[in-house]
Write a structure and sequence with these properties.
Blueprint lengths: L1 H21 L6 H13 L4 E6 L6 H9 L16 E5 L4 E6 L4 E5 L4 H4 L12 E8 L2 H4 L2 E5 L7 H11 L4 E7 L6 H11 L7 E6 L6 H17 L11 E3 L2 H10 L2 H6 L2 H15 L3 H67 L1 H17 L3 H31 L47 H17 L13 H34 L6 E3 L4 H26 L20 E3 L16 H8 L14 H25 L5 E3 L8 E3 L13 H13 L8 H15 L8 H22 L2
Parallel strand pairs: 1-6, 1-7, 2-5, 7-8, 8-9
Antiparallel strand pairs: 2-6, 3-4, 3-5, 10-11, 12-13
């Protein structure tokens, strides 16, 4: 029994805690029911409440059972408070006022002052509880009798009755045989009893003695129907309908007339009542728990509604934040991918073998012709600037997107201009008989004038083509202009070597610093959302605790416990993409010497155009796609409007719509637009109403096929490609802007 009492106490505490989480108004019905049911759970006494409309004889019936006029009775509704009758060695009354004052008097006369309705039939406003102690054997068994105010008279009285019924183990509903089951009684039966799990109910018909014998029989039949229609949960073998003529029974008890008390029905009713209580009292849990379940269900429903509402609010916030973070992460990865690719291309370009292959011949010739600074500005610097900008532009993108640290420009300086000290001139400086010595004629000459200077220039190309490091020993004795050419070649090699090593070191340092730019910080969530998370966790914990306590007392629930929320860290964190660096995969290096043999041409070949390879066009298109994707994500972050970028094949700089939807474009408004759209689909080789994803794919394929850069050395095809590219750009613009 002690263990059961502890379980009920824990359950009551859990109910109160859950109630506090709901922030219920103290005057709300649910709050009052929770307080009542919690007090009821831990009350060791077995409570019997007498319930019914005013003037049905409730107090009279209780006085008859007690054998004296303990409770106030009159011709008007008198009971203005719930009067609890408990066991005591003598008759006395204890009244507690709302301000904490206790009034204790011998007898029950004080009830006339505090427990009856006033002249306006209003309840006492300052009374908290009324208790009457009486030396009766039935009460000595741990039973309490509860005399409730009459219903259907005042809302305040009805609310008090409704509240007190929840704390009664057994309810005696008194019926007036003269007007059985009024509409109000039927509503109370459903709303106040059945819907709240109160099913231990006994019906007692009063005033049957006031009816004629024939009427009594008819009423008795109707009473049986009423009782049977209510599925009371009483011990087997006991009826839930009894007849007691309350006033004759009281008079008989006061006179000690046993026969009259028996004929009033009181004795039979008391015997049945004592037997029912004797069975139910040891197992009060079976009586009380259904009422707890009814109240707990309301609490769970209210808690769940509050939990779900906050959870939806937090999920909406998290979805928006996660979407922004996902976009930023994707943007950071794309920017880093583009940055790493551009760095790889610049690093590959700065490699000494590549520099020698591409620039040594031209630089040496420029040095011999006294045009090195011009060559450096127009050729080397131009190429370097383009590659540097390709690197830095990604960090500009990162700053614009994330507003983190602004990166500095990448600056790779050039070494000092090469210096050549001429050897002494031999006597036969006009000897120009060596093969290849006059490959280029008419040069101004830097250190040597006339045909000798031209011979030096020519010898540079000749010597590079002949691979001077592998010449036979017999060629070691060279002409003067060949010796000067070798000095120019060597000076340029030293220049490019210094440029390469310094440039690679600067690039490596710049790449490390870029990590501060290509990153973003997870912003702290608003304090309001953090507080809502804590509130949600508290509500879920209270809900789960209530479920566990209900399970302890074998009350089943349709609800499942909430899973523990993942721990949320509201601290500043940074995201820095660290994918594998994209490196260009150079072809097998055949060595500087072999590269010089394969790539160095004489000075005349420097003006020829070189047609780009397909992979260069692919790289250009990939670069455009990265820009396009980043621009789209910016638009998602800042505005619902689609962003626009320049297409890789555009020759006029037209802006292209970057919508990524797979839906077919909206329908055109007029016939002219319809014709333009139909023609655009045809140019791209698509069916009408193809999705924008299909439009982009077709455009990509055709750009790779018809890009003008692929036909630089084919004038006829170049013109055709330019016209085709113009049509493709126009078609893509029309379909993507719809």
């Amino acid at each position: 029994m002690q263990q059961q009492y502890e379980s009920y106490k824990d359950l009551a505490d859990s109910l109160k805690s859950a109630s506090a989480l709901l922030n219920l108004e103290c005057k709300s019905q649910l709050y009052q029911d929770i307080i009542t049911i919690c007090n009821y759970l831990v009350n060791p006494s077995f409570r019997i409440a007498v319930f019914g409309p005013f003037n049905h004889g409730k107090s009279t019936l209780l006085n008859a059972m007690l054998g004296n006029r303990t409770l106030p009775i009159d011709l008007i509704p008198t009971t203005g408070a719930a009067i609890t009758v408990k066991y005591g060695s003598d008759v006395r009354t204890r009244i507690m006022l709302l301000d904490g004052t206790e009034i204790s008097r011998s007898g029950t006369e004080v009830l006339q002052q505090f427990a009856i309705l006033d002249g306006n039939r209003q309840m006492q406003k300052d009374v908290a509880s009324v208790e009457v102690f009486c030396p009766h054997p039935f009460l000595e068994t741990g039973v309490e009798l509860l005399d409730l105010p009459g219903t259907n008279d005042r809302d305040e009285q009805d609310n008090l009755v409704r509240e007190q019924l929840l704390s009664a183990d057994l309810v005696i509903q008194l019926l007036d045989a003269r007007k059985l089951m009024t509409l109000g009684e039927r509503e109370n039966l459903r709303d106040w009893l059945l819907d709240r799990g109160i099913k231990t109910v006994i019906f007692v018909a009063n005033f049957l003695n006031l009816l004629e014998p024939d009427e009594q029989k008819q009423v008795q039949n109707r009473l049986v129907f009423v009782a049977e229609s209510f599925r009371a949960e009483l011990p087997p073998g006991f009826s839930n309908l009894y007849r007691v003529d309350a006033l004759p029974a009281l008079r008989a008890r006061l006179k000690g007339d046993v026969a009259a008390a028996n004929s009033s029905g009181l004795a039979a009713f008391e015997t049945a009542l004592q037997n029912i209580v004797g069975i139910l009292q040891p197992n009060r849990g079976s009586v009380r728990l259904p009422r707890v379940q009814a109240i707990a269900s309301q609490i769970q429903f209210s808690l769940k509604a509050k939990i779900d509402s906050i959870a939806i609010e937090i999920k909406s916030f998290d979805d928006k934040q996660n979407n922004k973070i996902e976009i930023k992460q994707k943007a950071a990865n794309l920017i880093y991918q583009g940055f790493a690719t551009s760095v790889g291309e610049l690093r590959d370009w700065l490699a000494l073998p590549k520099l020698l292959t591409k620039y040594q011949a031209g630089a040496a010739v420029a040095l011999a012709e006294n045009n090195f600074k011009v060559w450096q500005t127009n050729t080397l610097k131009k190429d370097l600037t383009q590659l540097q900008f390709a690197v830095v532009k990604w960090l500009y993108q990162a700053y614009e997107f994330f507003q983190e640290e602004r990166s500095q420009d990448l600056l790779i300086p050039f070494p000092s201009e090469p210096q050549v000290i001429l050897p002494s001139k031999p006597s036969n400086t006009d000897d120009l008989s060596e093969p290849g010595s006059i490959a280029v004629g008419g040069g101004i000459g830097w250190l040597l004038g006339g045909p000798v200077g031209a011979a030096v220039v020519g010898s540079i190309s000749y010597l590079l083509n002949k691979n001077i490091q592998t010449q036979d020993e017999q060629l070691a004795k060279e002409s003067y202009h060949q010796e000067v050419a070798k000095l120019c070649i060597s000076a340029v090699e030293d220049y490019l070597s210094g440029f390469s090593s310094q440039g690679l070191a600067i690039l490596a340092e710049y790449e490390q610093k870029s990590e501060k730019a290509i990153c973003f910080e997870f912003s702290q969530e608003p304090l309001e959302i953090t507080n809502r998370r804590e509130n949600l966790q508290e509500l879920q914990n209270g809900f789960n605790q209530l479920l566990r306590e209900l399970e302890q007392v074998k009350i089943l629930s349709n609800h499942q416990p909430y899973k523990e929320l993942p721990k949320y860290t509201n601290t500043n964190r940074k995201y820095s993409p660290q994918p594998k660096r994209v490196k260009t995969s150079p072809q097998k290096d055949p060595g500087v010497k072999q590269q010089q043999e394969n790539t160095a041409k004489n000075s005349e070949t420097r003006v020829k155009s070189v047609s780009p390879r397909p992979e260069e066009v692919e790289a250009k298109f990939r670069d455009w796609e990265l820009n396009e994707e980043i621009a789209r994500m910016k638009a998602e972050m800042r505005s619902p409007k689609a962003c626009r970028q320049t297409s890789p094949g555009s020759q006029t700089g037209k802006q292209q719509n970057v919508t990524q939807s797979n839906k077919a474009p909206n329908q055109p408004k007029n016939q002219t637009e319809k014709d333009k759209i139909t023609r655009a689909y045809s140019i791209l080789g698509l069916q009408a109403n193809a999705s924008l994803a299909e439009v982009k794919l077709a455009y990509r394929t055709l750009v790779k096929k018809w890009h003008p850069d692929l036909f630089v050395n084919q004038p006829q095809l170049l013109k055709q490609a330019q016209e085709k590219m113009h049509l493709l750009n126009e078609a893509y613009t029309i379909l993507s802007e719809k």
